[in-house]
Design brief:
Layout (H helix, E strand, L loop, with lengths): L1 H94 L28 H12 L5 H84 L15 H28 L4 H9 L22 E2 L43 E2 L1
Antiparallel strand pairs: 1-2
Length: 350
């Protein structure tokens, strides 16, 4: 009965408890494995995607800065042209600023004398010769003045055309800047959304992992001990360590009985010294339960990615181009582009 029923029952009970310990322990390992899978899979993938978006953002940001520099230079060149254009065109305006009603921009008053004729002493030809002598100093004057005016008018037209072309160029550059700013801001928003999602996913995974660990470790400790019950035989309850001790006691008892019965069958009597001999031969190592050590909890690391604030668009500077009345001085300068905040450095983990 001892060898056929009791001993197999003890061994079977030991195997069941060993399996229970390992099964509960595997639940802890499963928590760690699930969290490690997240860390090495979803988290790395999310951070890699964030890094890619930030690279695009940085590239766009660099392009924006280049375009802003071109736009600012264009505005500087335009303002120089506007000032020069206004100066030249105002000269044209000054030459021909107030029509007199004579059909000309300029009227010359002759101060040398009056054109007349003393028919008693002079012939008509002599009188005309005298009148001609009065206007002789104006010979070529109007032609020269007209040439000067035409030259100024030509310069005004030339610089007006150049100014209009430069204004159009600056407007094109402004559109290019703001288009790239829009693209950059889209990358910034994409980065911000992905960063927030990554942080939330990491927090969620961490919370779930901590909850899983707390639950499974508590279940494991409840099974393996330390046991709350005393060490009296049969007080093991759900605690494996107490049941392990009970089984070892049962095994020792069965082995002593078997040993004494064997000696009795051989000698026909019980000898007290044989009890100590039987005890010395008992070995219950095969009933020892292996209790795996609970591994250290994986630390939760939540990335802090911050936000990319994006870029501001470029604004044109106000200016006056020549028109009537003449504005020789442009308005005061305004900033062409707002300062661009920098995107935060790569995600720092806390």
């Amino acid at each position: 009965m001892v060898t056929s029923i009791i001993e197999p029952a003890i061994v079977e009970s030991h195997a069941a408890d060993q399996l229970l310990v390992l099964t509960v322990f595997r639940e802890i390992i499963s928590c760690d494995a699930t969290y490690n899978k997240f860390l090495n899979g979803d988290k790395i993938a999310a951070l890699t995607a964030l890094k890619s978006v930030k690279t695009e953002f940085d590239h766009c940001g660099g392009t924006v800065e280049e375009l802003k520099a071109k736009f600012a230079k264009c505005l500087d060149d335009r303002d120089v042209l506007v000032r020069h254009n206004n100066t030249v065109c105002c000269q044209e305006f000054a030459i021909c600023s107030s029509p007199t009603g004579y059909g000309d921009c300029e009227v010359v008053k002759l101060e040398q004398g009056f054109a007349g004729c003393d028919y008693k002493s002079m012939t008509g030809e002599e009188c005309f010769a005298h009148a001609r002598s009065l206007v002789e100093p104006l010979s070529g004057y109007f032609e020269n003045q007209d040439k000067k005016y035409e030259a100024v008018r030509f310069e005004c037209a030339k610089f007006s055309a150049a100014t209009k072309a430069k204004v159009a160029e600056c407007a094109y550059l402004q559109e290019a800047v703001n288009a790239k700013v829009h693209e950059t801001n889209e990358f910034a928003e994409q980065f911000n959304e992905a960063a927030r999602a990554t942080e939330q996913n990491c927090k969620k995974a961490c919370a779930e992992y901590k909850e899983c660990r707390a639950k499974t470790v508590a279940a494991y400790l409840k099974v393996v001990g330390p046991c709350e019950a005393d060490n009296a035989y049969g007080s093991g309850g759900d605690c494996v360590k107490n049941r392990e001790a009970d089984r070892k006691s049962e095994w020792e008892a069965t082995q002593i009985i078997s040993c004494l019965l064997k000696h009795y069958c051989e000698s026909g009597k019980f000898v007290e010294d044989e009890l100590e001999t039987c005890k010395s031969l008992i070995d219950s190592y095969h009933l020892a339960i292996t209790y795996p050590k609970v591994p250290e909890e994986i630390p939760c690391v939540i990335p802090e990615c911050g936000e990319c604030p994006g870029c501001d668009e470029c604004l044109d500077r106000p200016y006056y181009q020549y028109e009537t009345p003449c504005y020789a001085t442009p308005l005061g300068e305004a900033p062409a582009c707002m300062e661009e905040p920098e995107c935060p450095e790569w995600c720092a983990e806390k």
